[in-house]
Amino acid sequence: MCNGGRSFNYSKWSKLGFQTVDLFRPENELIRTFLESKNLAQFSLTESSEKLSAIFDKISLEISNVDHSLKATADSEKQKALNSLKLIEEKVVRAMKRKEETEVNQIIKVREKFFPGDTLQERHDTLLPFYLKWGNEFIEEIKKSFDPFDKNIVLLGEK
Fold first, then answer.
1. Which of 70, 97, 109, 128 has the smallest set of CB atoms within 10 Å of its CB?
2. Other beta carbons less than 10 A from residue 31's beta carbon
3. Residues 8-46 pLDDT 10s
4. Which residues pair with 131 in a beta bridge?
5. According to the model, what pLDDT value does residue 144 have?
6. For the residues of 79-129, what is the DSSP string, one character each?
């Protein structure tokens, strides 16, 4: 049992506003965090939903005073309206993602390089490309960095 190793371009990752530990977060969460950092995912209709809910609650109360059997109708219309607001919110977030498509694609590519096919990199890549790029220096760095009895993941990267 030895610890796993990975190689990735740290400078590209940090330009996107992430730290090394973020590589282990789910892809959707990373994209959401990125959009929030650009104040794009801050778009929320929560306040509007609360106001709409309060309006429908008031309508439901007034209707139940007239005819209690119509309260269920008002409640179902309230739910339809809230679902529509949620759908609008999701469409706006998708539009914002399209606007920032280049950076979102970079997040996906870096994470795909780190976890190709959602598996660990060493299960997919061989040492050969790294050896060809850095030569014996790479092998020496591996010897220094890895402990075969340590189960932690070691990251080797370029800055």
1. 128
2. 19
3. 567 778 888 888 888 888 888 998 888 888 765 467 788
4. none
5. 85
6. HHHHHHHHHHHHHHHHHHHHHTHHHHHHHHHHHHHHSGGGS-GGGT--SHH
